[in-house]
Amino acid sequence: MVISYNPGYQSVLKDLKQSTRQRFISLEFDYPEAQKEAEIVSHEGDIDMETALRLVSLAEKIRNIREHGLTEGASTRLLIYAAQMIRRGIPVHEACRSAICLPLTDDAKLQETLNDLIEDIF
């Protein structure tokens, strides 16, 4: 049997009981290293490697500000969504804003910060 569980992601009411957690082994996952993540984004988003590397660079910067108001960092999934939008002809800044910035926060100040990061990288 395999279960998937993201500790700290669910509310306290949905947390696994300690006795249940002890019945399973745990594997800890983190984001892939930048080059590998860019390969994933490039392949899944069908975009060039240079753009994929820039998206990953953006994600790394966003992940570094998680402690400053964001509850989640930019996932590889969001990078792939942005890549797919770019591939379909959506301008890069608009794609990053729609696929990465807006899903992460409703806070205007944080959105401004994320938009500044997008401008810096692209």
Automatic annotation (TrEMBL):
Residues 37-120 form the CbbQ/NirQ/NorQ C-terminal domain. This is CbbQ/NirQ/NorQ C-terminal domain-containing protein. InterPro entries: CbbQ_C (IPR013615). It comes from marine sediment metagenome.
